[in-house]
Amino acid sequence: MKKLSTALLLSTAAAFAAESQVYTGNFFDENEAYYGPDCEKDGSAFNGAYYTGNYESPFKTYLGKTDAEIQEKMDAMWDHYFKGDNNSKVFFDNGNEGYIKDINNNDIRSEGMSYGMMIAVQTGHKEEFDKLWNWAKNHMWHKGGDWDGYFAWQRRDDGFGGDDNCAPDGEMYFMMSLLFAANRWDDDQYRKDALYIMDKMWNNPGHKLFNQGNYIIVFQPLGNGNDFSDPSYDLPAYLELISRWAEKDTDKWKKAVSAAREHLYKSSNTSSGLFTDYSAFNGQPQQYNGNSNSTKYMYDAMRSAMNFGMDYYLFGADSTREIEMATRIINFFEKDGYQHARFNWDGSNPQEQYTQGEAGANAVAAIALRSTPGSEDKIKKNLQNAWDTKFMTGQYRYYDGLVHYLAMLHLSGSFKIWKPKPEVSEKEVTANEYNGINIANDTTFYSFESCKLYKVSAKPEPKQGFNTAISLNNSVRVRSTNNAIVIDNAPAGTKYTVTDMNGRILSASRTNSASEEIRLTNKGAMLVIVGNKTYRVSK
């Protein structure tokens, strides 16, 4: 049994009384941009970060990395890929413009440009974000004409040539990064640009980003590219947000959310958990004349693990199937010893060496195992793989380097859902404890209660002439049985709280006897706060 500090629970994103949707913390960055809790209008309850505002890094909770160590790692990544020398950087500054370059292919791709914008908005680098968006607008974005609203997937670094057709993962990342930028930097022009793109994804007369019958994103909205998909383009977490923030076609966007989750699940091999680069709408491998490896787990396919892992921790709405997918693919790579990179769909015919991008993507998928008993070592191994991955240099640094970078945003707690500014009400309280926050001095914090956000000004209660606090000794024990959590040797009346590892309250009350049995159906790792001490147990 491992004892944890109470501070782990009472961090800025700690959540209490989840059954009544109460979360306490800060939830704003230094410029008052909001990334805190939210709730569903229909009363649905999920425990993803969208609802809790909890973005605590699994590097911290599983590997014991400090906030300073994590920030140092992320700062070093930025310096390497955006500010480094010509053997490390992929971002190239060009005055009021800038671009991300595929070094191996010597071109500029919508994929890399949109990845760069997502990295910039999540790490707070507005100058580089604007330079990337200026380049994409000036040289890739079609405003009018046959491809109105879409982006040319390829250009030379002088902004010309290449291919005017689109690559849909670029459109997805452009839309999402612009919406985040609009909210984080309070700039409505970003939102207007995003809304223009979003409109054309459904309403361009000649090109639809999603199949009009099943709402699955297509491989390319052109010719027979409309007849199948690429599962690594399925980004249900992004579609969830777009469906909330769109001004039109909201029913279609909502259908696309469900379609993306369904297609990802069907595209995951039931044995290996692997995906193929291209797949039919029913999830089966899709042959394509332009790619002889389209039916294999190759370069595109590795991103699928990051996509469903992201959806799991941000929303949790499809958690049962995403846990199943994570279990399959992580168990497969465990058996392989994380040695190989390319496989047939069923996991046969291993080829090439495990890559930096896979280390990152699989670590994000492994987050979905956190409630699965016996998975802690697997989670730690994947997190350690991602943490230990060396930043890439040389000819092939662009693709795997950026996929690993995106994954590290999720794993470090740096990736947040930047939301429109909420309404905030004022509240004053006098108490020694409020929604899990200990109040020893005058303090201010935010409290999200029943779908409303309050700025709480708190003062401690006046001291009484005697001390009624219960003092715990070292004889207190917390243990688990098949059906319950048991607290032994705590005086009757001791306050306790039981949470899952995401901070969701499972039970909270006071002990009635020296051996308190708390009956729970939940399984897996849990945190039990007894008085002023926190214990970790597995059930």
What does this structure look like?
With 539 residues, the protein is of the alpha+beta class. Helices cover 35% and strands 18% of the residues. It has 15 helices and 22 strands. It has helices spanning 6-9, 49-52, 58-63, 67-83, 110-123, 126-139, 168-184, 188-203, 236-245, 250-267, 303-314, 319-336, 356-366, 376-388, 397-412, and strands at residues 2-4, 15-16, 22-25, 91-94, 97-102, 107-109, 154-155, 296-297, 340-344, 351-353, 424-430, 433-434, 437-438, 443-449, 452-459, 477-480, 484-488, 495-500, 505-510, 515-519, 525-530, 533-538. It has a five-stranded antiparallel beta sheet with strand order 1-22-21-18-19. It has a five-stranded mixed beta sheet with strand order 2-3-14-15-11, with no helix packed on it. Strands 4-5-6-7 form a four-stranded antiparallel beta sheet. Strand 5 (97-102) and strand 6 (107-109) form a beta hairpin. The N and C termini lie close together (11 Å). Mean pLDDT is 92; it is low at 1-19 and 465-471.
